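Q: Predict the bound structure with flavin-adenine dinucleotide.
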Amino acid sequence: MEVEKNLQTNKSKRVKTDYDIIIIGAGAAGLLAAHFCSKIPNKKILLLDHNKQVGRKILISGGGRCNFTNIYSSPDFFYSSNPHFCKSALSRYTPWDFLDLIQEHKIEYYEKKLGQLFCKNSAKDIVSMLLKLIDKNNVDLKLEIKNLEVSYKDETFVTYNDEYQFSSSELIIATGGLSVPPIGATGFGHQIAKQFGHKIIPATPALVPFKVSGFETLKGISLVAKLSCNEHSITEDLLFTHKGISGPAVLKISLYWNPADQIQIDWLPELNIVSEIEKAPNKTLLKTSLKRHLPNNFVDHILEKIGIDGDLFCSKITKKELSQIEKYLHHSIIVPSGTEGFRKAEVTRGGIDTFEVSSKTMQSNYQKGLYFIGEVLDVTGQLGGHNFQWAWASAFAVSQALQNQGILKK
Ligand SMILES: Cc1cc2nc3c(=O)[nH]c(=O)nc-3n(C[C@H](O)[C@H](O)[C@H](O)COP(=O)(O)OP(=O)(O)OC[C@H]3O[C@@H](n4cnc5c(N)ncnc54)[C@H](O)[C@@H]3O)c2cc1C
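A: Predicted complex:
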Protein backbone atom coordinates (compact mmCIF):
# COMPACT_ATOMS: atom_id res chain seq x y z
CA MET A 1 0.00 0.00 0.00
CA GLU A 2 1.36 3.46 -1.02
CA VAL A 3 0.53 4.95 2.40
CA GLU A 4 2.32 2.18 4.21
CA LYS A 5 5.41 2.83 2.09
CA ASN A 6 5.32 6.55 2.92
CA LEU A 7 5.03 5.77 6.60
CA GLN A 8 8.19 3.66 6.48
CA THR A 9 10.23 6.36 4.73
CA ASN A 10 11.43 9.13 7.07
CA LYS A 11 10.22 7.03 10.01
CA SER A 12 13.17 7.77 12.24
CA LYS A 13 13.02 11.56 11.78
CA ARG A 14 9.51 12.00 13.13
CA VAL A 15 8.46 13.10 16.62
CA LYS A 16 6.21 10.30 17.85
CA THR A 17 3.35 10.62 20.34
CA ASP A 18 0.59 8.21 21.36
CA TYR A 19 -2.98 9.31 21.99
CA ASP A 20 -6.30 7.61 22.66
CA ILE A 21 -8.36 9.79 20.33
CA ILE A 22 -7.15 11.95 17.43
CA ILE A 23 -9.49 14.51 15.87
CA ILE A 24 -8.41 15.96 12.50
CA GLY A 25 -10.02 19.35 11.78
CA ALA A 26 -10.40 22.10 14.41
CA GLY A 27 -13.52 23.63 12.90
CA ALA A 28 -17.03 23.63 14.34
CA ALA A 29 -17.47 19.87 14.65
CA GLY A 30 -13.86 19.09 15.67
CA LEU A 31 -13.72 21.74 18.40
CA LEU A 32 -16.99 20.66 20.02
CA ALA A 33 -16.04 16.98 19.72
CA ALA A 34 -12.75 17.78 21.50
CA HIS A 35 -14.74 19.40 24.32
CA PHE A 36 -17.09 16.44 24.75
CA CYS A 37 -14.32 13.85 24.42
CA SER A 38 -12.17 15.72 26.93
CA LYS A 39 -14.78 14.82 29.55
CA ILE A 40 -14.03 11.10 29.15
CA PRO A 41 -11.72 10.43 32.13
CA ASN A 42 -8.04 9.58 31.66
CA LYS A 43 -7.99 9.85 27.90
CA LYS A 44 -5.35 11.63 25.91
CA ILE A 45 -6.76 13.52 22.96
CA LEU A 46 -5.11 15.32 20.07
CA LEU A 47 -6.88 17.96 17.97
CA LEU A 48 -5.06 18.77 14.73
CA ASP A 49 -5.51 21.37 12.00
CA HIS A 50 -3.41 22.54 9.09
CA ASN A 51 -4.53 26.16 9.57
CA LYS A 52 -2.77 28.65 11.87
CA GLN A 53 -6.06 29.42 13.57
CA VAL A 54 -9.00 27.25 14.67
CA GLY A 55 -12.59 27.73 13.45
CA ARG A 56 -11.89 29.97 10.48
CA LYS A 57 -15.26 29.21 8.90
CA ILE A 58 -17.04 30.04 12.14
CA LEU A 59 -15.29 33.43 12.12
CA ILE A 60 -16.55 34.38 8.64
CA SER A 61 -19.99 32.84 9.09
CA GLY A 62 -23.20 34.83 9.28
CA GLY A 63 -21.43 37.95 8.01
CA GLY A 64 -19.03 37.77 11.01
CA ARG A 65 -21.85 37.20 13.53
CA CYS A 66 -22.24 33.41 13.14
CA ASN A 67 -25.77 32.11 12.77
CA PHE A 68 -24.84 29.39 15.27
CA THR A 69 -28.14 27.47 15.30
CA ASN A 70 -31.79 27.60 14.36
CA ILE A 71 -34.43 26.98 17.00
CA TYR A 72 -36.61 25.19 14.42
CA SER A 73 -33.82 22.92 13.18
CA SER A 74 -35.14 19.47 12.30
CA PRO A 75 -34.35 16.75 9.70
CA ASP A 76 -36.71 18.54 7.25
CA PHE A 77 -34.05 21.23 6.82
CA PHE A 78 -31.40 18.77 5.61
CA TYR A 79 -30.55 17.35 2.20
CA SER A 80 -28.84 13.97 1.79
CA SER A 81 -28.98 10.84 -0.34
CA ASN A 82 -29.97 9.20 2.94
CA PRO A 83 -32.49 11.61 4.54
CA HIS A 84 -32.94 9.44 7.66
CA PHE A 85 -29.26 9.53 8.63
CA CYS A 86 -29.26 12.89 10.42
CA LYS A 87 -32.34 12.14 12.56
CA SER A 88 -30.71 10.27 15.42
CA ALA A 89 -27.91 12.78 16.10
CA LEU A 90 -30.17 15.83 15.69
CA SER A 91 -32.66 14.40 18.18
CA ARG A 92 -29.95 13.77 20.79
CA TYR A 93 -28.34 17.23 20.61
CA THR A 94 -30.85 19.98 19.91
CA PRO A 95 -30.51 23.74 19.32
CA TRP A 96 -31.50 24.20 22.97
CA ASP A 97 -28.51 22.15 24.11
CA PHE A 98 -26.15 24.44 22.20
CA LEU A 99 -28.04 27.47 23.46
CA ASP A 100 -27.38 26.29 27.03
CA LEU A 101 -23.64 26.59 26.30
CA ILE A 102 -24.12 30.05 24.79
CA GLN A 103 -26.04 31.20 27.85
CA GLU A 104 -23.59 29.62 30.32
CA HIS A 105 -20.82 31.61 28.61
CA LYS A 106 -22.92 34.77 28.65
CA ILE A 107 -22.68 35.24 24.89
CA GLU A 108 -25.19 37.81 23.76
CA TYR A 109 -27.35 36.66 20.86
CA TYR A 110 -30.53 37.55 19.02
CA GLU A 111 -33.07 35.91 16.73
CA LYS A 112 -32.85 37.51 13.30
CA LYS A 113 -35.82 35.79 11.67
CA LEU A 114 -37.18 32.30 11.04
CA GLY A 115 -35.54 30.99 14.22
CA GLN A 116 -32.00 32.00 13.17
CA LEU A 117 -29.83 32.77 16.20
CA PHE A 118 -26.83 35.09 15.69
CA CYS A 119 -24.16 36.49 18.02
CA LYS A 120 -24.87 40.09 18.95
CA ASN A 121 -21.19 41.02 18.95
CA SER A 122 -19.03 38.72 16.91
CA ALA A 123 -18.50 35.15 15.73
CA LYS A 124 -15.24 35.35 17.71
CA ASP A 125 -17.39 34.76 20.83
CA ILE A 126 -18.25 31.25 19.56
CA VAL A 127 -14.63 30.34 18.79
CA SER A 128 -13.44 31.67 22.19
CA MET A 129 -16.17 29.68 23.93
CA LEU A 130 -15.24 26.46 22.11
CA LEU A 131 -11.56 26.96 22.99
CA LYS A 132 -12.44 27.62 26.64
CA LEU A 133 -14.59 24.49 26.75
CA ILE A 134 -11.76 22.17 25.78
CA ASP A 135 -10.08 20.73 28.85
CA LYS A 136 -6.42 21.51 28.20
CA ASN A 137 -5.39 18.78 30.67
CA ASN A 138 -6.66 16.10 28.33
CA VAL A 139 -6.41 17.71 24.90
CA ASP A 140 -3.34 18.76 22.93
CA LEU A 141 -4.14 21.26 20.19
CA LYS A 142 -1.63 21.32 17.35
CA LEU A 143 -2.02 23.82 14.52
CA GLU A 144 -0.21 24.20 11.19
CA ILE A 145 0.22 20.45 10.87
CA LYS A 146 0.24 20.10 7.12
CA ASN A 147 0.26 17.31 4.53
CA LEU A 148 -1.16 14.67 6.84
CA GLU A 149 -1.56 11.06 5.85
CA VAL A 150 -3.16 8.20 7.74
CA SER A 151 -2.38 4.51 7.90
CA TYR A 152 -3.84 1.66 9.96
CA LYS A 153 -2.03 -1.36 11.33
CA ASP A 154 -2.40 -3.59 14.41
CA GLU A 155 -5.62 -1.84 15.53
CA THR A 156 -3.85 1.52 15.51
CA PHE A 157 -4.24 4.57 13.31
CA VAL A 158 -1.05 6.41 12.51
CA THR A 159 -1.53 10.02 11.50
CA TYR A 160 1.68 11.48 10.18
CA ASN A 161 3.60 13.89 8.03
CA ASP A 162 7.34 14.40 7.55
CA GLU A 163 7.77 15.84 11.05
CA TYR A 164 5.26 14.05 13.27
CA GLN A 165 3.83 10.62 13.86
CA PHE A 166 0.76 10.38 16.09
CA SER A 167 -0.93 7.09 16.90
CA SER A 168 -4.38 6.41 18.33
CA SER A 169 -6.98 3.68 18.56
CA GLU A 170 -9.76 6.11 17.54
CA LEU A 171 -9.63 8.63 14.71
CA ILE A 172 -12.29 11.29 14.13
CA ILE A 173 -12.31 13.04 10.75
CA ALA A 174 -13.82 16.53 11.05
CA THR A 175 -12.21 18.26 8.09
CA GLY A 176 -15.41 19.71 6.61
CA GLY A 177 -16.41 20.23 3.00
CA LEU A 178 -14.84 21.90 -0.01
CA SER A 179 -16.29 25.39 0.20
CA VAL A 180 -13.94 28.38 0.46
CA PRO A 181 -10.52 26.76 -0.17
CA PRO A 182 -8.60 30.00 0.66
CA ILE A 183 -9.48 29.54 4.34
CA GLY A 184 -8.38 25.92 4.46
CA ALA A 185 -11.11 23.73 2.97
CA THR A 186 -9.73 20.53 1.41
CA GLY A 187 -10.95 17.18 0.20
CA PHE A 188 -8.84 15.45 2.87
CA GLY A 189 -11.82 13.84 4.63
CA HIS A 190 -13.15 12.45 1.37
CA GLN A 191 -9.71 11.03 0.51
CA ILE A 192 -9.38 9.30 3.87
CA ALA A 193 -12.90 7.89 3.52
CA LYS A 194 -12.02 6.53 0.06
CA GLN A 195 -8.79 5.07 1.44
CA PHE A 196 -10.89 3.01 3.86
CA GLY A 197 -13.33 1.85 1.17
CA HIS A 198 -16.07 4.49 1.44
CA LYS A 199 -18.11 5.84 -1.44
CA ILE A 200 -18.29 9.62 -1.96
CA ILE A 201 -21.53 11.19 -3.17
CA PRO A 202 -20.29 13.74 -5.76
CA ALA A 203 -19.52 17.02 -4.01
CA THR A 204 -21.07 20.17 -5.51
CA PRO A 205 -21.27 23.78 -4.27
CA ALA A 206 -24.53 24.61 -2.44
CA LEU A 207 -26.01 27.68 -0.74
CA VAL A 208 -24.35 29.51 -3.59
CA PRO A 209 -25.24 32.35 -6.03
CA PHE A 210 -26.20 31.50 -9.62
CA LYS A 211 -24.60 32.78 -12.78
CA VAL A 212 -27.36 34.02 -15.08
CA SER A 213 -26.98 36.40 -18.00
CA GLY A 214 -29.47 39.10 -18.97
CA PHE A 215 -29.84 40.83 -15.59
CA GLU A 216 -26.61 42.89 -15.67
CA THR A 217 -28.41 46.25 -15.61
CA LEU A 218 -30.27 45.27 -12.43
CA LYS A 219 -27.12 44.78 -10.28
CA GLY A 220 -27.78 45.80 -6.66
CA ILE A 221 -31.59 45.64 -6.88
CA SER A 222 -33.41 43.28 -4.52
CA LEU A 223 -37.01 42.09 -4.30
CA VAL A 224 -39.00 39.27 -2.73
CA ALA A 225 -39.49 36.40 -5.20
CA LYS A 226 -40.70 32.83 -5.14
CA LEU A 227 -38.21 30.38 -6.66
CA SER A 228 -39.14 26.80 -7.47
CA CYS A 229 -36.90 23.90 -8.50
CA ASN A 230 -37.28 20.13 -8.28
CA GLU A 231 -40.47 20.31 -6.20
CA HIS A 232 -39.06 22.77 -3.67
CA SER A 233 -40.21 26.40 -3.41
CA ILE A 234 -38.66 29.28 -1.48
CA THR A 235 -40.15 32.78 -1.09
CA GLU A 236 -37.54 35.23 0.18
CA ASP A 237 -35.28 38.10 -0.86
CA LEU A 238 -33.50 37.84 -4.21
CA LEU A 239 -30.59 40.10 -5.12
CA PHE A 240 -29.30 40.84 -8.62
CA THR A 241 -25.50 40.67 -8.83
CA HIS A 242 -23.02 41.49 -11.59
CA LYS A 243 -22.87 37.77 -12.43
CA GLY A 244 -26.53 36.83 -11.95
CA ILE A 245 -28.66 36.33 -8.84
CA SER A 246 -28.03 35.80 -5.13
CA GLY A 247 -29.77 36.49 -1.79
CA PRO A 248 -31.44 34.05 0.63
CA ALA A 249 -34.05 32.80 -1.88
CA VAL A 250 -31.33 31.90 -4.39
CA LEU A 251 -28.90 30.38 -1.88
CA LYS A 252 -31.71 28.24 -0.45
CA ILE A 253 -33.01 26.96 -3.81
CA SER A 254 -29.43 26.18 -4.93
CA LEU A 255 -29.51 23.27 -2.46
CA TYR A 256 -31.96 21.46 -4.79
CA TRP A 257 -30.50 22.54 -8.15
CA ASN A 258 -28.49 20.39 -10.55
CA PRO A 259 -26.74 21.67 -13.67
CA ALA A 260 -29.16 22.40 -16.55
CA ASP A 261 -32.21 22.39 -14.24
CA GLN A 262 -34.77 25.13 -14.83
CA ILE A 263 -35.80 27.50 -12.05
CA GLN A 264 -39.30 28.92 -12.12
CA ILE A 265 -39.60 32.44 -10.68
CA ASP A 266 -42.68 34.31 -9.50
CA TRP A 267 -41.48 37.92 -9.23
CA LEU A 268 -44.66 39.00 -7.43
CA PRO A 269 -45.64 36.06 -5.23
CA GLU A 270 -48.01 37.99 -2.99
CA LEU A 271 -50.14 39.50 -5.73
CA ASN A 272 -52.17 38.62 -8.84
CA ILE A 273 -50.87 41.12 -11.38
CA VAL A 274 -53.73 40.57 -13.84
CA SER A 275 -56.39 41.62 -11.34
CA GLU A 276 -54.17 44.52 -10.19
CA ILE A 277 -54.01 45.89 -13.75
CA GLU A 278 -57.70 45.21 -14.38
CA LYS A 279 -58.83 47.07 -11.28
CA ALA A 280 -56.40 50.01 -11.70
CA PRO A 281 -58.20 53.40 -11.69
CA ASN A 282 -58.84 55.03 -15.09
CA LYS A 283 -55.82 56.62 -16.75
CA THR A 284 -53.31 54.66 -14.64
CA LEU A 285 -50.26 53.97 -16.76
CA LEU A 286 -49.13 50.34 -16.92
CA LYS A 287 -45.65 51.27 -15.65
CA THR A 288 -47.15 53.20 -12.72
CA SER A 289 -49.28 50.23 -11.74
CA LEU A 290 -46.30 47.87 -11.88
CA LYS A 291 -43.95 50.28 -10.09
CA ARG A 292 -46.30 50.28 -7.11
CA HIS A 293 -45.21 46.72 -6.42
CA LEU A 294 -41.79 46.29 -8.04
CA PRO A 295 -38.51 48.28 -8.19
CA ASN A 296 -38.51 50.91 -10.98
CA ASN A 297 -35.52 49.51 -12.89
CA PHE A 298 -36.95 46.03 -12.74
CA VAL A 299 -40.24 47.25 -14.27
CA ASP A 300 -38.37 49.06 -17.07
CA HIS A 301 -36.37 45.87 -17.64
CA ILE A 302 -39.41 43.57 -17.92
CA LEU A 303 -41.41 45.95 -20.13
CA GLU A 304 -38.47 46.14 -22.50
CA LYS A 305 -38.05 42.38 -22.38
CA ILE A 306 -41.69 41.61 -23.22
CA GLY A 307 -41.93 44.55 -25.64
CA ILE A 308 -44.96 46.32 -24.15
CA ASP A 309 -45.17 50.12 -23.88
CA GLY A 310 -45.26 51.11 -20.19
CA ASP A 311 -46.99 54.39 -21.08
CA LEU A 312 -50.17 52.54 -22.12
CA PHE A 313 -53.19 53.04 -19.87
CA CYS A 314 -53.99 49.88 -17.91
CA SER A 315 -57.53 50.06 -19.36
CA LYS A 316 -56.10 49.74 -22.87
CA ILE A 317 -54.02 46.61 -22.25
CA THR A 318 -55.23 43.74 -24.45
CA LYS A 319 -55.91 40.22 -23.17
CA LYS A 320 -52.86 38.96 -25.07
CA GLU A 321 -50.65 41.61 -23.44
CA LEU A 322 -52.11 40.82 -20.02
CA SER A 323 -51.32 37.18 -20.48
CA GLN A 324 -47.73 38.05 -21.55
CA ILE A 325 -47.28 40.20 -18.42
CA GLU A 326 -48.79 37.47 -16.25
CA LYS A 327 -46.54 34.82 -17.81
CA TYR A 328 -43.37 36.87 -17.30
CA LEU A 329 -44.11 38.11 -13.80
CA HIS A 330 -45.58 34.94 -12.30
CA HIS A 331 -44.05 32.14 -14.38
CA SER A 332 -40.57 33.20 -15.55
CA ILE A 333 -38.17 30.40 -16.33
CA ILE A 334 -34.41 30.74 -16.03
CA VAL A 335 -31.64 28.19 -16.54
CA PRO A 336 -28.49 29.28 -14.68
CA SER A 337 -25.31 28.65 -16.64
CA GLY A 338 -23.76 27.50 -13.37
CA THR A 339 -23.07 28.52 -9.79
CA GLU A 340 -20.32 30.78 -8.48
CA GLY A 341 -18.55 27.61 -7.32
CA PHE A 342 -16.83 26.49 -4.13
CA ARG A 343 -15.16 29.88 -3.61
CA LYS A 344 -18.57 31.44 -2.97
CA ALA A 345 -20.56 28.44 -1.70
CA GLU A 346 -21.42 28.31 2.01
CA VAL A 347 -21.47 24.53 1.97
CA THR A 348 -20.78 21.35 0.03
CA ARG A 349 -23.67 19.16 -1.07
CA GLY A 350 -22.60 15.51 -1.18
CA GLY A 351 -19.66 13.95 0.65
CA ILE A 352 -19.14 10.65 2.43
CA ASP A 353 -22.04 8.31 1.70
CA THR A 354 -23.97 8.03 4.96
CA PHE A 355 -25.35 4.59 4.10
CA GLU A 356 -21.83 3.41 5.02
CA VAL A 357 -21.61 5.19 8.40
CA SER A 358 -23.52 4.49 11.64
CA SER A 359 -26.10 7.19 12.33
CA LYS A 360 -25.86 6.43 16.06
CA THR A 361 -22.09 6.55 16.50
CA MET A 362 -20.75 8.18 13.26
CA GLN A 363 -18.40 5.19 12.98
CA SER A 364 -17.36 3.84 9.57
CA ASN A 365 -19.09 0.58 8.65
CA TYR A 366 -15.78 -0.59 7.16
CA GLN A 367 -13.15 0.47 9.67
CA LYS A 368 -13.56 0.09 13.41
CA GLY A 369 -12.38 3.18 15.31
CA LEU A 370 -12.77 5.55 12.34
CA TYR A 371 -15.47 8.24 12.65
CA PHE A 372 -16.71 11.07 10.43
CA ILE A 373 -18.52 14.18 11.70
CA GLY A 374 -19.77 17.52 10.35
CA GLU A 375 -19.88 18.67 6.76
CA VAL A 376 -17.50 16.00 5.47
CA LEU A 377 -20.53 13.68 5.45
CA ASP A 378 -23.30 13.77 2.84
CA VAL A 379 -25.56 15.84 5.13
CA THR A 380 -26.23 19.41 4.02
CA GLY A 381 -28.33 21.83 6.01
CA GLN A 382 -30.48 24.60 4.62
CA LEU A 383 -29.35 28.23 5.05
CA GLY A 384 -30.18 29.60 8.49
CA GLY A 385 -28.02 27.93 11.16
CA HIS A 386 -28.77 24.29 10.32
CA ASN A 387 -25.23 23.46 9.16
CA PHE A 388 -23.70 24.45 12.48
CA GLN A 389 -26.45 22.53 14.27
CA TRP A 390 -25.37 19.44 12.30
CA ALA A 391 -21.71 20.05 13.23
CA TRP A 392 -22.64 20.31 16.95
CA ALA A 393 -25.04 17.32 16.90
CA SER A 394 -22.67 14.97 15.05
CA ALA A 395 -19.83 16.00 17.41
CA PHE A 396 -22.02 15.08 20.36
CA ALA A 397 -23.01 11.76 18.77
CA VAL A 398 -19.41 10.60 18.30
CA SER A 399 -18.34 11.58 21.80
CA GLN A 400 -21.40 9.89 23.30
CA ALA A 401 -20.53 6.75 21.36
CA LEU A 402 -16.93 6.80 22.57
CA GLN A 403 -18.07 7.32 26.12
CA ASN A 404 -20.77 4.63 26.00
CA GLN A 405 -18.71 2.01 24.23
CA GLY A 406 -15.98 2.39 26.84
CA ILE A 407 -13.84 2.47 23.72
CA LEU A 408 -10.51 2.61 25.13
CA LYS A 409 -9.58 -0.86 25.95
CA LYS A 410 -5.99 -0.13 26.87
C1 LIG B 1 -19.11 32.17 4.18
C2 LIG B 1 -19.78 31.11 5.00
C3 LIG B 1 -20.78 31.46 5.90
C4 LIG B 1 -21.44 30.46 6.62
N1 LIG B 1 -22.39 30.84 7.53
C5 LIG B 1 -23.03 29.89 8.24
C6 LIG B 1 -23.96 30.26 9.24
O1 LIG B 1 -24.13 31.44 9.56
N2 LIG B 1 -24.65 29.26 9.87
C7 LIG B 1 -24.42 27.92 9.58
O2 LIG B 1 -25.07 27.06 10.18
N3 LIG B 1 -23.48 27.55 8.69
C8 LIG B 1 -22.78 28.49 8.03
N4 LIG B 1 -21.81 28.13 7.14
C9 LIG B 1 -21.50 26.68 7.01
C10 LIG B 1 -20.65 26.22 8.20
O3 LIG B 1 -19.56 27.11 8.36
C11 LIG B 1 -20.13 24.80 7.99
O4 LIG B 1 -21.17 23.94 7.64
C12 LIG B 1 -19.45 24.28 9.25
O5 LIG B 1 -18.33 25.10 9.57
C13 LIG B 1 -18.99 22.84 9.06
O6 LIG B 1 -18.29 22.45 10.21
P1 LIG B 1 -17.14 21.34 10.11
O7 LIG B 1 -16.50 21.31 11.44
O8 LIG B 1 -17.67 20.11 9.51
O9 LIG B 1 -16.11 21.94 9.04
P2 LIG B 1 -15.24 23.28 9.16
O10 LIG B 1 -15.81 24.22 10.12
O11 LIG B 1 -15.02 23.70 7.75
O12 LIG B 1 -13.87 22.77 9.79
C14 LIG B 1 -13.00 21.90 9.09
C15 LIG B 1 -11.59 22.09 9.67
O13 LIG B 1 -10.75 21.11 9.08
C16 LIG B 1 -9.53 21.72 8.70
N5 LIG B 1 -8.94 20.98 7.60
C17 LIG B 1 -9.41 20.86 6.34
N6 LIG B 1 -8.57 20.13 5.62
C18 LIG B 1 -7.54 19.75 6.43
C19 LIG B 1 -6.37 18.99 6.25
N7 LIG B 1 -6.07 18.46 5.06
N8 LIG B 1 -5.53 18.81 7.29
C20 LIG B 1 -5.83 19.36 8.51
N9 LIG B 1 -6.93 20.11 8.74
C21 LIG B 1 -7.79 20.29 7.71
C22 LIG B 1 -9.92 23.14 8.30
O14 LIG B 1 -8.81 24.02 8.39
C23 LIG B 1 -10.99 23.45 9.33
O15 LIG B 1 -10.48 24.05 10.49
C24 LIG B 1 -21.11 29.09 6.43
C25 LIG B 1 -20.09 28.75 5.55
C26 LIG B 1 -19.41 29.74 4.84
C27 LIG B 1 -18.32 29.34 3.90
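A: The radius of gyration is 25 Å.
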